[in-house]
Design brief:
(R)-pantoate binds at residues 66, 158. Its main location: cytoplasm. This is Pantothenate synthetase. With 283 residues, this protein is an alpha/beta fold. It has two domains: 7-178, Rossmann fold (3-Layer(aba) Sandwich); 191-282, Pantoate-beta-alanine ligase, C-terminal domain (Pantoate--beta-alanine Ligase, Chain: A,domain 2). It is 38% helix and 20% strand. It contains ten helices and nine strands. A six-stranded parallel β-sheet has the order 1-4-3-2-5-6, sandwiched between helices. Helix 6 (129-144) packs across helix 7 and helix 9 runs antiparallel to helix 10. The longest helix has 16 residues, at 129-144.
């Protein structure tokens, strides 16, 4: 039996032709946007897409506009052949692999900016990041026009920014968040985890433990500040630093909360050695 394979779509015309063919057959379509370096978290998105729609297309594009000048765009892990093999095994139908010129043609001059949600948490720390995310995701959604697009909850702020953008711009695509997939010790799966040394990897799961402790402490309406202070101290003792934020925020608006009185998330971003880790849990 031949090994499974996915259809490679190199550019917008190929993507649209494939989606048109599926539509003509009456198929529904899910899109899973990724930057490659796939892991079990991405494959969970594919699995959910296959459960919800007849066809799944996965985009693989390391988007330069969402990286700052001192960030890891040049060294971000890339292994297209490995990614394609994983997608084939997962049952994805197609992989969309545009290059930078296909996504940002000469003279490209448009940026999508979502106010409010991008002004807290990662926003001030990574200026321009969410403009890059919103712009590329809006392009991917309009290029494919799927029924559904799936994003991991690990990047919770990104998920909320995309939901707001889609509502505001009347893009006719349903957006669904998929729960974070974790290693056995609780560490959120991430393409950047491969940057961790062995010693750092052993400490990395402390972030998830701290998030859960803070969530348990504030869930009944207790003041957040003492739990957040204790959480920061534990992160520092585990070798994290700088700690960019450890925060309790409204789950929809992302406004910081002193006390939880509705849906909320506990979110963190911190360096462990040279690797920036982010995670969040419901409060």
């Amino acid at each position: 039996m031949p090994a499974p394979s996915v259809t490679r779509l190199p550019d917008v015309p190929a993507l649209r032709a494939q989606v048109r063919e599926w539509r003509a057959a009456g198929d529904t379509v899910a899109l899973v946007p990724t930057m490659g370096a796939l892991h079990a978290g991405h494959l969970a998105l594919v699995e959910r897409g296959l459960a919800a729609c007849r066809r799944v297309v996965v985009s693989i594009f390391v988007n330069p506009t969402q990286f700052g000048p001192a960030e890891d765009f040049s060294r971000y892990p890339r292994d297209a052949e490995r990614d394609l093999a994983l997608l084939a095994q997962a049952g994805a139908d197609a992989a969309y692999l545009p290059d930078v010129a296909a996504m940002y043609a000469p003279g490209f001059a448009t940026t999508v900016h979502v106010a409010g949600l991008t002004e807290v948490l990662c926003g001030p720390i990574r200026p321009g990041h969410f403009d890059g995310v919103a712009t590329v995701v809006s392009k991917l959604l309009l290029q494919a026009l799927p029924d559904l697009a799936l994003f991991g909850e690990k990047d919770f702020q990104q998920l909320q920014v995309i939901r707001r953008m889609v509502r505001d711009l009347d893009i006719p695509v349903a957006i669904e968040g998929v729960p974070t997939v974790r290693e056995s010790d609780g560490l959120a799966m991430s393409s950047r985890n491969r940057y961790l040394s062995d010693a750092e990897r052993r400490q990395a799961a402390v972030m998830h433990a701290v998030l859960r402790e803070v969530a348990a402490a504030v869930r009944g309406g207790a003041e957040a500040a003492p739990a957040l202070a204790a959480g920061r101290e534990r992160l520092e003792q585990a070798g994290f630093g700088p700690i960019q934020y450890l925060s309790v925020n409204d789950a929809e608006t992302l406004a910081p909360l002193d006390r939880v009185d509705g849906p909320a998330r506990v979110l963190a971003a911190a360096y462990l050695g040279a690797t920036r880790l982010i995670d969040n849990v419901p409060a």
